Amino acid sequence: MEDRFGHHIRYLRVSLTDRCNERCQYCMPHEEQDWLPRAEILSYEEILRVIRIGADLGISKIRITGGEPLTRRNVLWFFEQLSAVPGIDDIGISTNGTLLARRDKDDRTTARALQETGVRTVNVSLDTLDHKTYAEVTGRDILGEAIAGIDAAREAGFEKIKINTVLMRHRNEHELWDLIEFARERDLLLRFIELMPVSTTEVLTEDNFLSSGEAKKIIEFRLGRLAPRPDVRTNGPSSYYEIPGSGQIIGFIGAMSNLHFCETCNKLRLTCDGKLRPCLGSHLEFDMREILRDPDKTDRDIARFFLHVVERKPEQHEFRENYQPDRKMIAIGG
Ligand code: SAM
Ligand code: SF4
Predict the structure, then answer these.
(1) What is the pLDDT of residues 141-166, one digit of tens each?
(2) Would you say the CB of residue 24 lies under 6 angstroms from ligand 2?
(3) Secondary structure of the chain: what % helix, strand, coil (to 5)?
C-alpha cells in the first residue's frame, strides 16, 4: 500500500485495550477513568482478521500496544496466533514493563513467554529512576516492578529492548544522565520522546515541554558532544546519536521540533475499538468495526477499506498547529 506522498505502508500499530495499571499524567488524565464497554473492544479474532488482511496488502510489522497490553486476558494466546499469520515477520510490544516479570505456574516470566511466542522487540516506557517521581508521573509507586520487568526482558533474550523516556521539564531533566547510565549498564537502546499534545490540553504547556534540542544540550554539558549517527535506524522517526567515549547510542523522537518527522512514516494505527487511524497527530479515523461486524461484508471489503484509509493519510501531523486533543492517548494506542 502506498499513500499519496509515496509512503509505503508496512507497519500496523495495534492497541489491545484502553485499560492500564498505571495512570500516566500525559496519557490518561486522572479525572477521566471511564473504560470503554467490553462490547466496543475488538475481539482477538477480529483483530487477527484485520491483521491477516493487512498482511495480504503488505503489512509485515506489527507492534502491540494499549493501554497496557499485558493487562488484557489471554494475551499470550493472542501473540501465538499473531506469530502464525503469514507475512508478519516482525512483532513488537510497547509496555510499561510492570507485568513482564510476572511468573506463570511453570515459573516462566511473561517476558520469556512473549519471546517464545515470537515477539522480537520490546519497548518499555521508563521516565524516571526515582520512586517519588515515578509515582507522581504514573500515579503508582511501582518503579520496582518496572525495573524487574526490564531485567526479565533482558533474561528472556529479545532481539532488541528499547527504553522510551518522555521528556518533562521539572520532572526528569536532571535525570537524563542517570537514565543514560542505566541503559548503558544494561545494553538497552534509550530514546527520549518529546511530549505530544494528545490526551488533554494541559498536558503540553510551555512550562513542562522539554524539547529534544534542549535535552541534547543538557546531556552534552556533562558527556560531551553527541555525534549524529544517521546510519542507525529503527522502524520509526528517531534520530540517533553516539555518546563520545562510551560509544553508546541514544535516540530522540521529536514530534514537535523535528520538521522532517513525518517523512519516513510507514504506519497505520488500529484502536482497541476498531478505528483505523492514518496518523497519530490528525483527527482522522475510520470505523473498521462496523464493517468487521457486518455479516454481509467480506475480506475484500475490508481490504478496500484499508486502501481507502491509506489514500487519506495526511502528509504530516498537525501537532504544531494548535492541535486540540480528541482522544486520550490511552484510547488511541501509543
Ligand atoms: N502502556 C504502554 C507503555 O506505557 O509503553 C503502551 C501504551 S503507551 C500509550 C505508549 C507510549 O506512548 C509510551 O511510551 C508513553 O510514554 C507514550 N505517550 C503517552 N502519552 C504521551 C504524550 N502525551 N506525549 C508523548 N508520549 C506519550
Ligand atoms: Fe498506561 Fe502506558 Fe498510558 Fe502510562 S503511558 S497510562 S503505562 S498506557
Answers:
(1) 999 999 999 999 999 999 899 999 99
(2) yes
(3) 30, 20, 50
Q: How far is the CA of 126 from the centre of ligand 1 (A)?
A: 10
| The three cell numbers locating residue 87 | 507475512
Answer yes or no: is the C-beta of 215 below 6 A from any ligand 1 atom: no
> Domains in the chain and their CATH numbers?
11-332 (3.20.20.70)
Q: Using DSSP bridges, classify how beta strands 11-15 and 61-65 pair: parallel, antiparallel or unpaired.
A: parallel
- The closest of 190, 114, 106 to 149, measured between CA atoms, is 114
What is the model's pTM? 0.94
Between CA 262 and CA 284 the distance in angstroms is 16
Nearest-atom index, ligand 2, CA of 98 = 7
What region does 333 belong to: left with phi over 0, alpha with psi -120 to 50, or beta? left
H or E stretch covering 206: none
The number of beta carbons lying within 10 Å of the beta carbon of residue 49 is 15
